[in-house]
Each structure stands twice: as C-alpha cells, then as structure tokens.
Amino acid sequence: MDSLRKLLNMNKNIASAYLEAMAEDGKTTSDALAILNEHLGTQHKWNRIWEWANGSRPIPDDVLRVMLPHALPWIVKQESGRRIINSELSAKIARWFK
Predict the structure, then answer these.
(1) Residue 8 carries which DSSP code?
(2) Whose C-alpha in 43, 64, 71, 74 is 20 to 30 A from the C-alpha of 80?
(3) Host domain of residue 45
(4) What global pTM score does this model have?
(5) How many distinct structural domains can be found in the chain?
C-alpha cells in the first residue's frame, strides 16, 4: 500500500476522490461514511473522513481498500477528461482490493 500511496500522492487525494465519486452516484458524505463503516465494522465519525480528505490524518490501509475501488475510476476519469473506465474495469479494480 505504501508504494501505491506514493504513486497516487495519496491520503487527501484518495479521500477527496472517494467523496467526489460517491457524490456523483448521488450519495452524501454521511452515506459515504456509512458505507465505509458497514464494510469495515467500524464507527468512524464524519470528522474522520474530513481529516483524511484534508491530509491531517493518514488513511488506514483497511479504509483505503474500501475507498480505492470508488476513487480510482473517478481519478482516471478526471485525469483523462472523459469516461474511460467502464463497469467491467471498475469491477476488476474492486477485486484487486478484496
């Protein structure tokens, strides 16, 4: 995870991208946090996701495994300026982090 973290200039970029990707799917920050907590069996509060997003706190690896399948396609789409990630590729990315 550390090399991936460095490659993507992580923490705040991944957390922010996760929130943006969820927003594009019509989900609020509270929804995004609920999804994380449900997958991880945690009880993170809303301020934690903002600490990750602003870079003041590192994102734990288990949280990254939930965020990345949502965040990476969004990042690629933003960087490319067009939607090049389809649902099949998104599913493959998601399987990498299981």
Answers:
(1) T
(2) 64
(3) 2-96
(4) 0.70
(5) 1
